[in-house]
Amino acid sequence: MTDIITRLKNVKKFQAKRWENEDHWDEINDLLIKELDDILSAEPQNTAALINIGAIYSDMGENEKALEYLQHALKLGSADKNLYTNLAIVMVYMEMHPEEYHEYLETAEHYSEDPLTFKAYFDPQSQ
Question: Could you tell me if 74 and 104 are in contact, meaning their C-beta atoms sit under 8 angstroms apart?
């Protein structure tokens, strides 16, 4: 378990470097997805890994795939603020009705961020 925690901490650190190395954006995302897939192979119900891979797919514009991972973490009972925030972000990008994602934003306010997860990037100007 500690090995998985260490790996998730490293994923979180490495994902932040994507923004500093945009020339290598795709390669970094591929490495992050491979690492998270490996973690999920060992622990299929690891909600932190599910939330993070969902955030990465959202950042890549693959919102349907992101939504699958995030909904899986939701079904497993995650109480992570980043899960609910990321669900709302993905739903905005998928142009769903505001009532659908506002509920997730309101729910997010009742939770704390898991230190092993991160938020998907949101650009309100992209809409």
Answer: no
DSSP annotation of 111: S
Q: What's the first-to-final CA gap in the chain, in angstroms?
A: 40
- The residues with which 112 forms a beta bridge, in sequence order, are 80
Closest-CA residue to 86 (of 77, 99, 107, 32):
107
* Integer Cα distance of 115 and 118 in angstroms: 8
**pTM, two decimal places:** 0.93
What's the whole-number average pLDDT of the chain?
Answer: 93
Instruction: Determine the Cα–Cα distance for residues 4 and 12; give it in Å rounded to an integer.
Output: 12
Structure tokens given for 79: 């109480």
Q: What is the pLDDT of residues 58-91, one digit of tens each?
A: 999 999 999 999 999 999 999 999 999 999 999 9
The residues that bridge with 80 in the sheet, in sequence order, are 112
Using CA atoms, how far apart are residues 79 and 77, in angstroms rounded to an integer?
6
- Does domain 2-114 correspond to CATH entry 1.10.10.10? no
Query: For residues 91 and 56, is the Cβ–Cβ distance under 8 A?
Result: no
